[in-house]
Amino acid sequence: MDIRPILAALRRHRLATLLIALEIALACAVLCNACFLIVSRLDLMKVPSGVDESSLAQLRLDCDGCNESDLNARALSALRTVPGTQAAAVVSSLPFGAPSGYAGITLDPPGQAERHYGTVPHFYAGGPAAAEAIGIRPVQGRRFSSADFQPSDGAWLPLDAPVWITRPLAEHLWPGKNPLGKDFWSDKYHFRVAGILDHLAQPEPGARGVATAQWSIFLPMAPGRQLAGNYVIKAAPADLPRVLRDARAALIRAVPEGVLDLDQSQTLGDLRHRYFRNDRAMAGMLVGVIAALLLVTALGIVGLASFWVAQRRKQIGVRRALGATRSDILRYFQTENFLIVSFGIGLGMVLAFGLNLALMSHYELPRLPLYYLPIGALSLWVLGQLAVLAPALRAAAVPPVVATRSV
Amino acid sequence: MFAYYLDLALHSLRRSPVLTSLMVLAIGLGIGASMTMLTVLHVMTRDPLPALSAQLYYPHLDPLPANYPTNNDWGDPSDNFTWPDAMAMLKAHRADQQAAMAGGRVLVWPVQTGRLPFRVGGRYATAGFFDLFGLRFEQGRGWTMADDEARARVAVLSHGLAMQLFGRTDVVGRTVRLGDARFQVMGVTSEWAPQPQFYADAAGKGNYGEADRFFLPLATALDLGMSVSGNQASWKEGGKTSGYYTWLQVWVRLKDAAQVRNYRQFLVDYSAEQKRLGRFERSSQNAALYPLMGWLEHEKLVPGDLRLQLWLALSFLIVCLVNIVALLLAKFLRRSGEVSVRRALGATRRDIFLQFGIESALVGLLGGLLGIAIAQAGLWSVRHRPDSYAHIARMDLSMLALTVLLAIAGSLLAGMLPAWRASRVVPALQLKAQ
C-alpha cells in the first residue's frame, strides 16, 4: 500500500498526530520500566534459600530463665517423638525467620592498627545434625566433625570456630582467591573457612540490596547458652502441616513454662510467603498501573480515530465511489495507526532509557535489559491496532452514496 | 456570559456522551492514581509531633574510628550514641529538656491467671523523656532522676497496655512482670504514637504504626541486661557501657536560635575535647545538630518503594493529560463549523477561547470528582496492604481539595492548546466549505 497519501493526510493533522505519538511514547517508557520492575520483584521472590524449604518447619520457644541444656533436651525429645518427624535440630535461625545475628567482620585480627572491614553477614549457628536436617552441604571443603561443635563463650559464639560460607560472600571478601582455610574475625571471635556453600540466604534476603541476599555464614555450635529455643523439624512435604501442628502441641506439653512464638513457628513455605508479601503487593500494584495505562492509551486512540473517521466521512465516500473496496479503507486507517504508533515507539525507546537511567541513579536499579524494548513496542503495536479496529470498521462501512450527498 | 458558556459547555458534553465519558474517565484514572500515591506520601512525610517538633533536635557525634567504612548497607553507626557520650550530653545540661533512650521488646506476664504472656515493644529512657516529648499522664507520673540513679524497678505503662493487663488504668502501685523482673507501676500515659516513630533508632526504618507500650528507666534496663532492639554497632571490645558501642538515642528541646547555636558549639567543643583525649579519631566538625524534620529527611525515613510509586503515578498522570489534550482537540475541531458561525456573528477570538476553556474546566471538574472516588478506592486497597505504614493512609480535607484543584488545573492546561487552535479557526473558509 502506498503510504504517501497517508503521510500527506497526517501532515495536515500535525498537532493531533504528534499528541498521540507523544502519548504512545510516554506509555512505552512507563510500560518498559514498570514491566522491568515487576520482573525484578518476581526474581527477588524466587531467591534460593539454599535449604530444603518444602520439608522444613521452624519452632520457636521463649523461655526466660530456663536452663538452656534442659530446655533443648526436653524440646528435641518431644519433637522427635512426633509421628512423621524425620529430623529435629537446634538452629539459631532459618531463612525468612527472625534473624539471630548480623555482625560485622574484619579480615585481620583485633588489635591490628590497620583493619580491613569485610561486611555485615548473617551468622547461622546450628547444633549437631542441623546441617543435615536443613539440607545444606558444602560443594567444596569438609563436613563438620563432632569436635567442631564447641559451646559459646557465654555471650555469642564459640571463640574459635570453623565455618561454611556462601560462594557470593567468599567472592566478595576474597575476590578471585580460594577462600578455603582463610581466616576472619568479628570482635574477638575467630573463624576459619572450612567449606563453601552454593546458597544460604539471609533471614531477610534482599532487605539490604539484592547483592547481599546470600551473604550468610553457617557454623557448628554445641547447643546450650546462646543456642536454645529455636528448632527445625523435617518431614515429608505432604505431611508437614500436620507434623507442625502436632509438634507445636508436643512442645507446649514438654515445656509448659515456655511461651511458643506462634508467629515464628511456621513452615518455611509460609515464612517465605509472608516475607515477600510486600513485594507481591507492589508487583500487583504495578500490574494495575500498567493495565490502567494501556486502557487510557487505547481510549485516546479510539477517541481520535473516531474523530478522524467522522471528519473524513465525505472523502471516504468519494474514495468508495471511485472504486476503493472496504478493505482498502480499513487498511488505510490501520496503516495510519501503525505509522503513528511506530513514530511514538521510536520516541518512547529513548524516553524509556532515560527513565531507566533516572531510576538507576535514585533507586539502585539495574540497567534495563534491551530485550524489553521490542516487547514493549510489540505490545503497543497490538494495542494500537486493536484500538483503531472499531473506528476503522466504521469507516469501512461508509457507503459510496455519501459522496453524492450534500451536507 | 459565564452562565451562557457553562450552558453551551453542558450542551456540548451531552451531545457526545461517549467522547465526554472517555475524557472524564481518563482524567479520573490519572488523578485517582496520582492522588492515592500523593496522599500516602503526604501522611508519611507529615510532622509526627506538630506541637513540639520546631523545638526538638537530635545531636550527632562521630566516635567511629578513622578507617571505619562509612558507606555500608547498614546505615551510619554514629547515628546512635555510646553510653558515655549520651551521659555526658545529659550531665552537661545544655538543654532545658533532654533524654537518652533505647527501644526494647520484652515478654509481659499477665496479671490474671490462665492467660499467656506476650511480647510488646517499649522504651528504656531517662527521666526527662516524658516532659521532653510532652506525654500526658492519665494516672500517676513519670519517674525522677533520683529513680534513674537508684536503678529503681519502676515502670510507666501506656493506656493500652494497662487496659490489656488490668482492664483499668488506676493501677499506680501495682506490680507488673516484664521479662525476668518485677516493676512497680508509677504512672499510665494517654495513648501516644507519633508517626513515624521519629525518636527511635533510625535503622528500624518503617517504624510506622508501632507505639511504645511501656517505659522503663534506662539504667535499670541496662542493669537487668534487658534486650535492646535496633541497630547496635561496636568497633572495639567492651559492652554496652563502653565508649565503642553505639546503641542509644538522645533528643533535646531547645527554645530559640541562640540556644541552638550554643548547643551546636557545645557538640563541636565536646568532640574536639574527646579527640584531644584520643577517644575520637574523626574531625570534630562532624558533630551536628538536626532539627526533627531535618533528621527524618537525613535518615530517609520514607520507604523508597513509595517514591517509586509516586513517580509512576505522576508519569501516569502526564500520559492521561496528553490524552486529554488529544481528545479535546478532536472535540473542539469537530465544532469548527459552529465556531465559524459564532465568529461570523461577532464573537471575538477571546470569547471562543473562554468558551472552550470553560468546557475544559467542566470536564476537569467531573474528572476530579471521579478521581476522588478512584483515589478512595485506591487508598482503601493501600490500607489493606501488609506494609507497616499502610493503615495510616487516609485522605484529609486539604488532599480532597487538592485532588479537585489538580484535576481542574490539569484539564484547563490540557484544554489550553485545543481552545487556542479552535479560536484560530478562520470563519470565512469554514463557512465556504459548508
List the main descriptive attributes of the protein structure presented here.
heterodimer, A: 407 residues, alpha+beta, four-stranded antiparallel β-sheet, 48% helix, 12% strand, B: alpha+beta, two-stranded antiparallel sheet, 14 helices, elongated
Task: Summarize the SSE layout with pairings.
The complex is a heterodimer of chains A (407) and B (434).
Chain A lengths: L3 H9 L1 H32 L10 E7 L5 H13 L6 E4 L31 E5 L3 H5 L5 E2 L18 E7 H7 L9 E4 L2 E9 L18 E5 L9 E5 L5 H15 L4 E2 L7 H8 L1 H35 L1 H9 L4 H38 L8 H25 L11
Parallel strand pairs in A: 3-8, 5-7
Antiparallel strand pairs in A: 1-9, 1-10, 2-9, 4-7, 5-8, 6-7
Helix pairs in contact in A: 2-8, 2-10, 2-11, 3-6, 8-11, 10-11
Chain B lengths: L1 H14 L1 H28 L11 E5 L22 H10 L4 E13 L8 E8 L3 H5 L3 E4 L4 H5 L4 E5 H8 L8 E4 L2 E9 L24 E4 H7 L8 E2 L10 E2 L2 E5 L3 H20 L11 E4 H7 L5 H31 L1 H9 L4 H35 L13 H27 L3 H7 L1
Parallel strand pairs in B: 3-8, 5-7
Antiparallel strand pairs in B: 1-11, 1-12, 2-3, 2-6, 2-11, 4-7, 5-8, 6-7, 9-10
Helix pairs in contact in B: 1-12, 2-10, 2-12, 2-13, 10-13, 11-14, 12-13
Report on the structure:
The complex is a heterodimer of chains A (407) and B (434). Chain A is of the alpha+beta class and 407 residues long. Chain A is built from eleven helices and ten strands. Chain A has helices spanning 4-12, 14-45, 68-80, 130-134, 167-173, 240-254, 268-275, 277-311, 313-321, 326-363, 372-396; strands at 56-62, 87-90, 122-126, 140-141, 160-166, 183-186, 189-197, 216-220, 230-234, 259-260. In chain A, helix 2 runs antiparallel to helix 8 (277-311), helix 2 crosses helix 10 (326-363) and helix 3 (68-80) packs across helix 6 (240-254). The longest helix of chain A has 38 residues, at 326-363. The two termini of chain A are 30 Å apart. The mean pLDDT of chain A is 89. Chain B contains 14 helices and twelve strands. The two termini of chain B are 28 Å apart. The chains are: A alpha+beta (407), B alpha+beta (434).
